[in-house]
Amino acid sequence: MTKAKFIKFIIASVLAIAALFLPYESLGFDAASPMGILNPLEIRVIGVFVMAALFWILQPFPIWSTSMLVIVLMIVTMSDSSLTPFRVDGVTMISHKSIMATFANPIIMLFLGGFFLAAAATKYKMDLNLARVLLKPFGKNPKFVLLGLMLITAVFSMFMSNTATAAMMLAILAPVLKLFDEDDRGKAAFALAIPLGANIGGMGTPIGTPPNAIALGALNDAVARGDLVANPVTFGQWMAFGIPYVIILMVVAWLLLVKIYPIKMKQMVLNIEGAGKFDTSPKAIIVYITFVVCVLLWVTGKNVHGINDNAIAMIPMAVFALTGVITKKDLNAMSWDVLWLVAGGFALGVGLNATGLAAHLIKTIPFASWSPLALMVGCGIICLFMANFMSHTSTATLLVPILCAVGIACQDNLVGLGGVTALLVSVAFASSLGMSLPISTPPNALAHATGYTDTRGMAITGVVMGLVGLVLSWGMMIFLAHVNFFGTPAPKAADKVAEPAAVTKVVEQPAPEAPAAVVADSSVVDTTAVDSAAVDSAAVADSAVVDSNAAVVDSAAAAQAAADSAAAKAAADSAAAAQATADSIAAAQAKADSIEKVKAAEAAALVAAAEAKKARQDSIAAVKKAK
Fold this sequence. Notes:
Blueprint: H1 3-20, H2 40-58, H3 63-78, H4 96-100, H5 106-123, H6 126-135, H7 142-157, H8 162-177, H9 186-201, H10 210-225, H11 235-260, H12 282-300, H13 302-305, H14 309-312, H15 314-323, H16 328-332, H17 336-354, H18 357-362, H19 372-387, H20 392-409, H21 411-414, H22 419-432, H23 442-449, H24 455-482, H25 492-508, H26 513-541, H27 543-546, H28 550-586, H29 591-626
């Protein structure tokens, strides 16, 4: 480790440790605030997040090793398999299996399948021969050859890594660049065309560049957890909007390059070294067939054949391994560091969601009150700015988990723009549009290393393409939302609206019991009336006693009338209480009051019934005494 890297390491480590001891309660995370108190696990996730962000930006270590450190620290300090001193009573630890599973996330398998296809295509010179064939229609006019190079680079970048594509195309272009005159600025246009094509082309498919895979993984995980009600974006769907987006940006970039760097050369011929006739060996034919089959399966989608996009990516892995197309040496040469880097991002996402930190963080800013366009624009600009100064993958790894949580919390607001799906897609595109500096992305660095580009021209094209790309992505998302391309995202509030309906059904059941109780008690009163009538009849038959007991009978009748009146009043009160209960069902806030009213009505009915019963007994006793 050099002295400069050691200093960066110390700075990042001190800041990460400091994040563990910040007075979060004084910053608003207390019991009295809606944000609540951060538990120890959430604070540890913040510390790891700060460490990862600084390590990825300052790069005292390779960025993939930082991702590995993130996963190990989370297992050792936050999981249910952590060291004993790090266990926290009363707090659910993160499942260590869920953290380890990030290495085998379905998106990781999708990426690995893309690596197999790219390695096989390069090994059997399928890429060089395709470049030779596809460039023929563009003729010998330098301007159209430039456009052809950009489009071919973009096509390769959709299935190969951006860096590998740029390296291959610059190798093809190296002899051609030497043909330009010293004062012909056209050579800078050709040199810049390659990184532009590689960076933009990768956005066309989910496997074209890691930010796409990271965004897609976060989206699918949110759907799987039940946090988001949406249809997962398939490989074919992504290509359906990704490829037109890439084509439009390619044309804009081509016009911009021709404008900034006028080409003086009138005619040029590309001789691609190593290209010839297509290999017709059995293994090469296996590569061609497998490549075509996978692309067709991805494009047609699961609804046609039933195979998931991630499962399709495993087909070339099995076919190429069994047939010897990919050997152990080829396997070792693949970009495993990229897979580990992406896995670290997924692990951070697990930590943010499993500890509840994501929910706490989104409460600090009133995102729900923001307009959907402001939310999408703000997220896009943040991603674009960061992607110009750190790797695209690191930018997406840092921001996608947080912005996914923000989007889920505000998904009601985002419905008009295509929901959380549109937000994450635009964020993935913004992460890939950072290309204004030589350090922004490896293809830029490779092009700058040729000596034919200038920093000023790269900055101008990068800034213009970044802004144009952002605006185009927002416009595309709005259009896709209007045509319902992603389906209709169900607002999160809808689930909560349904809950009171279920509660009201529970409340409704006691409500009818009040009239039932009154009716039951009224039947007792009615029975009393029958008995009283029988007694009166007996009194009339006995004429000797009738006169002496007239007052008693009148008293009994009065008592009976009082009982009937009380019963009627109780029934009326009960009916009023039942009506109040029905009204309270419509107004969820009055549920508790209505229940109390029903109980009061029941009590009143029981008291009235008891009084009527007592009056009947007194009446009968008085009649017997008179006899």
